[in-house]
Structures are given as structure tokens and as C-alpha cells.
Amino acid sequence: MNSRRDFLQKMTASAVAFSFFPRSGSATMNELSDQPYQGPVLRVAIMGLGSYGSRVAEAMQTCKKAKLAGVISGTPSKIKDWQSKYNIPEKNCYNYENFDRIKDNPDIDAVYVITPNGLHREQVIRVAKAGKHAICEKPMALNAKEGQEMIDACKKAKVKLLVGYRMHFEPKTLEIIRMRKDGELGKVLFFQGLSGFRIGDPNQWRLDRKLAGGGAMMDIGIYSINGARYMIGEEPIWVTAEETKTDHVKFKEGVDETIQFQLGFPSGAVASCLSTYTMNNLDRFFLNGEKGFAELQPSTGYGPIKGRTNKGELTHPHITHQTVQMDEMSGIILEGKQPIVPVDGEEGLKDLKIIDAIFLAAKTGKKVDLKL
Amino acid sequence: MNSRRDFLQKMTASAVAFSFFPRSGSATMNELSDQPYQGPVLRVAIMGLGSYGSRVAEAMQTCKKAKLAGVISGTPSKIKDWQSKYNIPEKNCYNYENFDRIKDNPDIDAVYVITPNGLHREQVIRVAKAGKHAICEKPMALNAKEGQEMIDACKKAKVKLLVGYRMHFEPKTLEIIRMRKDGELGKVLFFQGLSGFRIGDPNQWRLDRKLAGGGAMMDIGIYSINGARYMIGEEPIWVTAEETKTDHVKFKEGVDETIQFQLGFPSGAVASCLSTYTMNNLDRFFLNGEKGFAELQPSTGYGPIKGRTNKGELTHPHITHQTVQMDEMSGIILEGKQPIVPVDGEEGLKDLKIIDAIFLAAKTGKKVDLKL
Hints:
Two copies of one chain form a homodimer. By secondary structure, chain A is of the alpha/beta class.
């Protein structure tokens, strides 16, 4: 097992991208050779050293085109730990008061904001004003209004804004998207997304409306929203939603426990999704076409993803999602590469518009029309 | 293969019921012995000799407690065929004009109405008035008002009214119900039902509003409605629904092509279902509990049903559903047996009330409260 894992970890993202997607044509001879990578490297500072930030940092250790270069945190002891663990120089360490000074640091290209949702807007705008590219964890913000402000700020500052959609680079997911695009599934009419787990500690920020902007929907339901869009390959034109709450103590006003939502698409395709913090291990995408079907289960966990279609099981090897994501984001930011599924601010904004509509539909009980 | 199939076909329904459900205690020593069955036999006339009627007739050939004794049809040539095939005496043959005379026939106990939905109400009421027990194919009628009238007529005539819910006797389905009842799945919070196939001939009665009472919902969607109830084990208290139509020629006004619907239950459990005449091979039930899950796929086809739970695959052998159904219905009618999941008129009426609510919810876009 270990040698296989080592092998997978050591495979470079571009080599993998080439072998999985021969049509993309993004790999160069240099990238396919055994010679050390000599192209541009994205130097990233991570803002927010929590559990997901730690996961990204670990994954970046095997990146080829991206490098952990700095940290931003409000906890000096965490900064110390990361400095020694990842050999980060003092001059690349910031706190939330002084990080605007990053503008004068020529050794940082981008800041990856991995903080509670309610802080994203202000922090990304500050990153943009400091002239650094921003990568923001999803959901991009608390609502579409905030998301638009972030996009505007990054445009004005002429920096790129990307959102941490790691599944957009996942090989089995991309293979299904390719099959759908190439007509191998026939006309696609139905998508189902089940996204849920049983949330633990009732005092975490994810259950605090001000910091999270909601409950399960902002955290896990967004995977089904985003998945419906990239699996079907269209933008929804309406949404309906129904909310259910069984625990009013854990899930306070404005913090959703369970929401079922439905999306309608221009072609007549429909999506039926579940977002919940009360049921364990719900992580399944199902796409049904006139000629075939595709299933991902688990569909969005940290991996390995399992996929099968009417033609059989997908066997693409697992590579740590965040490693691939950061290498690919380096290519997008530094080399102007175009990902197969977008990961920019506009992409994040679409999900926020849908979330706004889901909350409205759940509250009013009415179908809400969308124009994305 | 053949010997196994023969073996399964020859197994008596009661022996099977005994081996699968040792707790039911309904089997007697006599039923378990190798001696020929000597208990009461339900003598059934089938009304409507179409493809499903033919399937039931074939299945009844291996019944122990039920016997095909008569036919009612508007097509003399079909009656002739069935007479010779199943050795049915002339005196047990009727047409739609004269079948009220069945009242004077001591050799018929019950009539199984297998005609287009729009005819059920009148025909079942005539069967009741003739003093015969009525078995009615599902949906029981076009709407709840009609269903109630049928129940009232059968009560007044002191005959039994059963609805053709063959899945209520299906071993894998019943095993999952047992697991849920015994708490092996923990608290159940989510059910998904996908019910659909691509309908062929646009001129069939199932696409005629007057005869069918709708489209996919009356024919195939009802499986997800009924399944949600028996899998969760509660009655829904609200419903929402969204209709999508891509083919307005094939699916005329009042004939539904695709409806997504959601049900809410008193415990906080929710169901998310799809009913469609446009997507092929959708036949999946999924039940998610706090401690485990259960999946049936196919879940309602003529068989074999496939089931798995968190504990592994279900291995109960397949027996033709209609054979088991008719043997069990004989026990219900002649011996007063109580099925694990009801199959009476009240059960059919509940589904009709839900269908009425789904159509209303789809039309108005509003959540509809239910009291079943």
C-alpha cells in the first residue's frame, strides 16, 4: 500500500492531467520529462491555520508549481509551529492587524483565505488591495452581494480571484464531465446530490450564523449545488426548497439543519438535492442520461472518490485533491491556463446566488426564478 | 438455472413467509408439511385481460391458496383464449354489460379489477354490489374522492376491498421494514425514491388523461409515494412538488411527464422522490438512518429485487410477486390474516390523497399540508 501511495503522491499534477485528459493539450514536453520542474511557482501565504488550512499546507508539500511561502494567523503559537514545520521565514508571517503590509513582500504571490465564511469578504478585499492574488475557500462569502463586492475589488486591483473548488480538478469527476460533453450519456435529465454528515461540537463557528452565514447549506450543501451545475453542464433557472429542523437547540434561527432543494435547468433537466448536518455519510452524486448514467460515491469527500458509469467502474488513481488544486491554480494565475470547470470569482458568485435563492425559497415556500 | 427457478416457483408462499419472517407465526404445521394444501382457496375472476392481467393469470398458476376461476372482458376472442389456456368454464365468463350477474355465481369469490384507472371506481362498486370481494389494481382510482366512494360501497356491501400492492409482500422489502422497526437502522431521517421509465406508444391509455387520471405519477410515481410510507413507517404531513415537461405533444395537459416531489413526516424525516416517463431504468429506494442504510435497486420492478444494507447484501430468493400477492390476499380475505403492510382500500386511499396533494402542489407551487 505504502509504495502505491508514495507513487501517487509523487506523480506530478501535470503528468496526471496529461494522462487523464489527452485532449486538453496543456502539458508540455518539459512537464512530461523526468527533469525537475523549472516553470513558474506560485508562492502562497495561507490565512487561517485551522484544520483545513493544515490540510492544504500538508498537500502543498508535494506540489510542483505551488509553494507554501507564508502564513497569516491571530495565534502566535500556531505561527511558530508552522514556521518550524515548513521553514517559513519570519518576514513572511503576519497577523490580522498587519497583513496589509504583505503588499511590500515580493516573496508572496497569493493569499489563500481559509477562515470562517463571515470573514472572507473583508479579508479578500484587503488581500486585493495589497496587490496579491486571492484564493478563497468556499463558500466565497455569506451571500451574493458580498461575493460581487469581492469580485469588483479584485478586478479593480487587477489581481485574480479563485475559489477553492477542489472537485473541479478531480479526475473521476472530470471523466464524467467529459463523457457527458461527448454525448456518451445521451441527453441528461436528472441529477441527484446528497450532501450531509452529522456535525459534532455545537459550539464551532460553523453553527454560528454570523460567522457561517447559515448551517449545512454553506458548508456541505454547496457541494450538491456546485455538483448539479458541473455534472449537468447548465445553469439553473429556478429553485424550490424545503427546510426541516429537528434540533432547535443545536441549529438556531438562521442555521439550517436539513434542506431539500430542487433545481430546474433550461434543457428540462432537473436536480434533486439534500443538504444536512443530521445524517451521516451522505455523499453521492447521480447523473442520469438517456443513454447512460454516472455515479460518484463518495463524490466530494477528501478521497478517494469512487465513480462508476453504465460502462463500469472508473479507475483513475486518487491524488490528494488539494495538491492538484494548488498546482492547477498556479497554472491559472501565473500562466493564464483555463480550467475545464471554472474556479474564478464568477463561479463562486453563481453558487452564492443559488444559495440566496434556496434560503428565500425555503422561507417563502415559493419557487424562485434565477438568472445566472 | 431452470432447476433453481422451478424450486423457487414451487415453494409455497406460506413456507416462504415462514422462513423469512419467523416472528409472524402465521404458518401452521400443515402448511409446512409436504402434504397438499387443504385450506381455503380464493376463486378469482380477472377483469381486464391486458398485459398485466395476463401476468397475474400466469403467476396464479403456481398459487396454492388462490385460483383463477373466471374472466371479465369486452373482447370475446380473448375470453376464448383464456378459457382454453386456463380451463375456465363458460359460466364463469362475463363481459362489461353482464358482469353484475356474477352475484349469482357461487364459484367466484373475488374479482381482480385490472383495467384502466378511470374505470376502477365504477367497476369496483359494481363488483361490491354483486356481493363479491374486490381486488383493484393501483392506483385504486383517479382521486381520493373516488377512492372514498369505493371504500364506502364495499363497506356497505360487506365485501373486502384490497389494492394490488405486490411490494407489500416482497421479502427483501419486508426485511428492510423489519430492520427499521427493530431499530437496526437507528432513527430514520431520509428516504429517496426514483421511479421512472421511458414510455413508448404515445397512443396508449396511460397517456390519456380521462383513463389514466394523469401520467407518470399514477403509473410509476405511486411506487415512490407508497415506498416512502412503508420504508419510513410514518404518514406524511406535507408535500411539495415541481413539474417539468419537455414534450408537450406526447404529454398533454393533465398528463405529467416528470414530477419531483418531497414529503415531510412527523418525526422530521423527509422524502425526496422523482416520478418520470422520460428517463429509463430509474427504480431505486434509499433509506438512511442514524445507524445504517438500506437500498433497493431495482426496488419495485417485477423482479428480482436487489437489496443491500450497511450489513451487506440481502439474499432472500425471488418469488414471482403476483403469486405471493394472490396467496397472501387469499389469506387476508378468507382467513382474516393481517399483512405486515396494509393492502386495503384505506391504504390505497392514502396514496390517492397524496397524489391529489402532489398535483395541487405542482400546480400552485405551494406546500400542501396533509392529514392521512
